[in-house]
Amino acid sequence: xTLRDRQIERLRTDTFDTLVIGGGINGAVAAASLAGRGxxxxxxxxxxxxxxxxxxxxxxxxxGFKYLENYELFLVWKLCRSxxxxxxxxxxNIKQIGFYAALDRTSPYKPWFAGLGSLAYWIIGMFGxxxxxxLSTDHIEREEPAIDTSNALGGIEYxxxxxxxxxxxxxxxxxxxxxxxxxxxxNYVEMVSAxxxxxxxxxxxxxxxTGEEFSTTARTIVNAAxxxxxxxxxxxGLRTDHRIVYSKGIHLIVPRLTTTAHHKVLAFFDDSGRLxxxxxMGRRSVIGTTDTRVDTPYTEVTDDDIDFLLxxxxxxxxxxxxxxxxxxxxxxxxxxxxxxxxSGNDQRDVDWTKLSRKHAIEADRARGVVTVFGGKLTxxxxxxxxxxxxxxxxxxxxxxxxxxxxxxxxxxxRDEFYRQARLVRLDQYRTKAxxxxxxxxxxRRYGRRAFTMLEAIGEDPRMAEDVMGSAxxxxxxxxxxxxxxxxxxxxDFMRRRSKIDLVVHxxxxxxxxxxxxxxxxxxxDDAEMRLAEYFGGADQIPPAVxxxxxxxxxxx
Length: 556
Ligand SMILES: Cc1cc2nc3c(=O)[nH]c(=O)nc-3n(C[C@H](O)[C@H](O)[C@H](O)COP(=O)(O)OP(=O)(O)OC[C@H]3O[C@@H](n4cnc5c(N)ncnc54)[C@H](O)[C@@H]3O)c2cc1C
Prior knowledge:
By secondary structure, this protein is α+β, with helices and mostly antiparallel strands. The protein is built from 19 helices and 18 strands. Helix 13 runs parallel beside helix 17 and helix 17 packs across helix 19.
């Protein structure tokens, strides 16, 4: 029985204090905080965990320097506080990073004024980062020659946080924490309908992978369906004070644009005066994002989006040759679920980019439903705490919050891991000089679970081999993913537990014989079926991957 089968069995048979609908960041923190405080919790998502908005972010943990433009001082203060808290709780997963902004004659602010803004940002952020500075054009040219300084008047550098891996993996860490605290977790399970009677919900669920329907019961529900919260509430006839509107944002992932030593985010004002960024992602750069009003949560990256971002970048960086479509390794798109009051003006009348990024949480006591509207990854600990307070208000008794449902293990545990890693000479297994030490990588990705990986490598050094040449994933990590990370489809692993789909060219993935072994470790006998699903049909499995499957068959 797989991890997922066991969890679905629990959904069928148990009665829960709370059922969380939606496994994006808001649902994941809600489940982690409630389970961590002793509630009997289940969390479901109709896709993989973090398959929607929470896999489309800029990976930034930030106070929102740009919201100062709208004088949202309280929001910036709150987000900075959340940023500082998260950076403290996740010292290896969230790193402080410099934002390097070059300003030219077309920029809306002069360097001295932007410098004052960055100072204000630092003070509002309670000095939680390194201090900002004003940069001369010569300084920018020296430190990052890739920035076109021909029209520059100078620039600024200020600091925020960045997720070292990716947003979706960060979300999964909360889902995993919820499971470790006893929650039932299941991806590819959809809430079809729900009815309340005698103080409890009977919820009809559908296993999206098999099509099978079944039901579960819960005293309360947390609606964390992100862009779909209104749709879900309407299904139950539940009326709320807030609602969601959508703002689309896209990112393009390209080979690294900055000089290798320059591990900074580059910030530019686009032609409309809006800030956009070049964000480091290992050996890649992520360009984005955009901010466009849309009426549907389902979006795609259009030719116009791509042309816009490429032209903005080429106009502001000295790239020889200029960046073209051929350089794009991957793209991603999502909608920010922005919260507005139902009683407010028709939002068509307001400046779209000025809509606030704050979240709202509403509880319906009669129905036993808590709804989470909007929010940011950065604010996730607050969301977890606020949801727990509301659920407690609905009558679910919770233990005291010891703040142990989030964060990395204690420094002493980390020291012990590094000591044991030295004993098995873990870093000597690294084969690519331009990648980080394996000790750092395993600790950051797995925390306490990394100890068993050391044991496995100690027993069998093959466990420390990279399975796919073009991606940085060890055999031992795949075995751990198969056991503990609820990888239901190959895409779950390629796009969300890892970021291989984002940083490796499609051609390199197609030419990887190692992908067959990845699928075999993750899915056993279902490997070929999951490969066919990933590539869009059995006849679409590339020859190299087929060859890998044959080789595995011959060896077994
Ligand atoms: C382009 C962009 C850039 C961003 N950058 C940043 C950033 O750098 N930093 C930051 O802090 N924030 C950022 N954000 C904001 C942040 O990503 C979002 O606010 C956050 O991810 C929203 O999470 P969520 O859990 O509310 O929604 P989602 O992640 O969309 O999760 C909702 C889930 O509910 C599930 N669901 C819906 N209906 C059902 C049903 N009936 N049954 C079961 N499951 C269901 C969906 O499948 C989905 O997975 C960005 C957002 C965008 C779009």
